[in-house]
Specification:
This protein is of the alpha/beta class. 45% of the residues lie in helices and 21% in strands.
Length: 319
């Protein structure tokens, strides 16, 4: 491992040279890829060998092969170069029409399954080189609203995700929130479930329920609403996401509270129907959340605008 003195003297361009030789398995082809002469690549390899104290690449009749040490180093060197390229891409003027950045968005699947289609359609139209990664976010049960999303706050601060979609207005001051859209919940069940004919409060409470929970905690906002009416329910099953909930509800007598827009888009393909809850359930305001410091990044600012535009399309869509 390089110590601080070695790193200060090292030419980090040698890592790019290492990458080219490792991938090409040939000094000549690596030289062409880097627009260098073969002798310049050979000289660079000599410096790398002295720096890393290993032959790194062994000559064969068809080119070179990496040593065990070079193979071990490859993953770390590739990671260093990927991070460096991301930093440089972020620092360069951002042009969505030509950018090849990858943005990571964290959101509950009940929200991402709704806003993703209009977001992708717009991205492909105006920024065809942009890639999107989605990470599922769900709250930690039994916590205050701010603490329930603390893993999301950590991911945002470490830039593991570029933005989060959070169904709460209780956002820490170090983040900037942008209104997205509002959502409420309906009760989902298989098409011939007896509750559909008579969705009374008594029959609803008597049914067996499914709850979406990453921790397996069966208690949620529906239970708090029922408690205000002096009622309880039996939660027979918890699953980790809303799409999985749909597949289970379609094949069982379990009922589940699902986001209204999510159910309107996806329930029919599973043979699932919905009814309004027998008691009013909470409405949730979803917000686009990013660190205040991230808004200095032109790419993040562009992404926020694009996601908000997708949110407006969702809001205008009839449920």
């Amino acid at each position: 491992m390089l110590n601080s003195i070695d790193l200060a003297r090292a030419d980090l361009n040698l890592l790019v040279l290492f990458e080219s030789v490792f991938e090409e398995r040939h000094v000549g082809r690596a030289a062409e890829r880097l627009s260098l002469t073969p002798s310049a690549v050979s000289h660079g390899l000599g410096r790398l060998r002295r720096l890393l104290n290993d032959p790194l690449f062994l000559k064969t009749p068809k080119g070179v092969v990496p040593t065990d040490r070079a193979t071990q180093l490859w993953e770390s060197i590739a990671d260093v170069l990927a991070r460096a390229r991301k930093v440089i891409a972020t620092a360069a003027p951002f042009d969505p029409a030509t950018s090849t950045r990858r943005f990571t968005i964290g959101a509950p699947d009940g929200a991402s399954a709704v806003f993703l289609p209009p977001l992708l359609a717009e991205t492909q139209r105006i920024a065809p080189g942009i890639d999107i990664a989605l990470r599922q976010l769900l709250p930690l049960s039994g916590e205050t609203l701010e603490r329930a999303w603390r893993s999301a706050w950590t991911d945002l601060e470490t830039r593991s995700i570029d933005m989060a979609i959070i169904p709460s207005d209780d956002i820490p001051a170090r983040f900037r929130k942008h209104p997205f859209f509002e959502e409420d919940f309906v009760i989902a069940m298989r098409a011939r479930h007896p509750l559909k004919r008579d969705p009374s409060l008594d029959r609803y409470c008597a049914a067996q329920h499914l709850v979406v929970s990453t921790t397996g905690d069966p208690s949620g906002f529906v239970d708090r609403t029922l408690a205000k009416h002096g009622r309880t329910r039996r939660v027979a099953l918890t699953v980790p996401n809303f799409m999985f909930a749909l597949t289970v509800v379609a094949q069982t007598d379990l009922v589940c509270a699902l986001p209204r827009r999510f159910a309107a888009i996806h329930a029919a393909q599973f043979g699932v129907v919905t009814v309004d809850a027998p008691v009013p359930l909470d409405r949730f305001k979803l917000n686009v959340v990013v660190p205040e410091t991230a808004m200095m990044d032109a790419g993040i600012t562009w992404l926020v605008t694009l996601v908000q535009r997708a949110g407006r399309r969702v809001s205008q869509r009839r449920n």
